[in-house]
Amino acid sequence: MCLLPVAALAAPRSPLRLLGRGRAAMSTAQPLKSVDYEVFGRVQGVCFRMYTEGEAKKVGVVGWVKNTSKGTVTGQVQGPEEKVNSMKSWLSKVGSPSSRIDRTEFSNEKTISKLEYSNFSIRY
C-alpha cells in the first residue's frame, strides 16, 4: 500500500479556474505546453503514479499517468511552459522515494491553445 505524505495532498500553488465545459485554464501569460512522457527503471510497485499525481497537483499541471504492460510508466502533462518543465525535471530525476529512474523519454512536445484536461489523474 502506498502512503502519500499529507503535504503532497495540498492544493496546487497556482489556482486553476474553470472555463466553460469544465476545462481548466491557468492564470498566466506563459504559453501552454503539452508533452508525453515514458519513465523507465524501477517505477512500478513503488507508488510512482501516486507520487506523480501529487507532484503534478503541487506544481499546478494537468494530465494523466499510468503503468504500461512493459514495466514503464507513461502519461501526458499540460500547463504553462515553466510548470511543465518543472514536472519534466521531477519525472527525470526525482520520482517516488522507492523508485529508480533509469531514463525518461519525452515526445510530442508542443504549444497548445487550451488545456485538454481539467485535472491530473491516474489511469488504469
TrEMBL record:
It is an enzyme of class 3 (hydrolase). The keyword Hydrolase applies. The active site is at residues 49, 67. InterPro entries: Acylphosphatase (IPR020456), Acylphosphatase-like_dom (IPR001792), Acylphosphatase-like_dom_sf (IPR036046), Acylphosphatase_CS (IPR017968). Its EC number is 3.6.1.7. Keywords: Hydrolase. It catalyses: an acyl phosphate + H2O = a carboxylate + phosphate + H(+). GO terms for molecular function: acylphosphatase activity. The keyword Hydrolase applies. It comes from the Eukaryota. Residues 34-124 form the Acylphosphatase-like domain. Belongs to the acylphosphatase family. PANTHER family: ACYLPHOSPHATASE, ACYLPHOSPHATASE-2. This is Acylphosphatase.
